[in-house]
Amino acid sequence: MHLVNFTPWSALAGGALIGLAAALLALCCGRIAGISGIAGQLLTRGTPDRLWRIAFLGGLLAAPWLLRLVSDSGTTPHSAASPGMLLGAGLLVGLGTRMANGCTSGHGVCGLARFSLRSLVSVASFMAAGFLTVWLLRHVWGGA
Amino acid sequence: MKSRAAEAAIAALCGLLFGLGLILSGMTDPARVQDFLDPAGSWNPSLAFVMAGAIGVAVLPFQWLRRRQRTLGGAPLQLPASHGITPRLVLGSVLFGIGWGLAGFCPGPALVGLGSAWQPALIFCAGMLGGFGLFSLLPGRPG
């Protein structure tokens, strides 16, 4: 093991902003800031209350644009995955998060902050699957 | 929340804060996320600090809401109905974890990447959309 790009302070600060957003949405609107649920249910027939979902996603998508207006710095993202891998991974994430009723935000942030047992089981399951997948990807099949 | 417009305005602000938090924390970079999931290689523990920061800020408001059961404006909470610990919860989480590990994207960072028109995020989001569609074909929702 060797540590790379470890940025504890910006990670904590960014995390605090995410927690603040989740707390505000719950305090003011009584809603859970779960990205997969907000996006997935927008595409489901018969979902009521579409307006706040569209507004939330609009804010999320606008974040990189707003940041670019005030500064052109920021980290350049990297992706090692091929287009086919990205498409397949997206399919698994879309299906899996809807089956589990949540992802890193709904279960990982809001659910754990609510002390939900379901969320704890979900987080333990997706973390375990994620660790195992990256280990297989990088150290067994020898990818990136 | 009385007015839908006010609710939407707050939701937009929350989405923006959420996205800025993801960018500031570095979690919009799939390589960093995969590095977190790789303690046997180039480990980057940052994601644990993002989770700690987020939960640290959210835990008191959420626990207060749990007792109060109402929003600041007095409206009832719209919490997810609990279905207990089901096979579907575990299977869905495992499928999500596999996809998360393969690409380093979860839904939030993928949508932020979509917002900045970053090609890998566009492709991933197309797949994710397909996954949402596949879910709607499953029998016996929700479970």
Automatic annotation (TrEMBL), chain A:
It is found in: Cell inner membrane. The keyword Magnesium does not apply. It comes from the Bacteria. Keywords: Cell inner membrane, Cell membrane, Membrane, Transmembrane, Transmembrane helix, Transport. The keyword Transport applies. It is a multi-pass membrane protein. The chain crosses the membrane at residues 6-30, 51-67, 79-96, 117-137. PANTHER family: INNER MEMBRANE PROTEIN YEDE, SULPHUR TRANSPORT DOMAIN-CONTAINING PROTEIN. Belongs to the TsuA/YedE (TC 9.B.102) family. This is YeeE/YedE thiosulfate transporter family protein. The lineage of its organism: Bacteria, Pseudomonadati, Pseudomonadota, Betaproteobacteria, Rhodocyclales.
Automatic annotation (TrEMBL), chain B:
The chain crosses the membrane at residues 46-65, 85-105, 117-138. Keywords: Membrane, Transmembrane, Transmembrane helix. InterPro entries: DUF6691. This is DUF6691 family protein. It comes from Uliginosibacterium paludis. The lineage of its organism: Bacteria, Pseudomonadati, Pseudomonadota, Betaproteobacteria, Rhodocyclales.
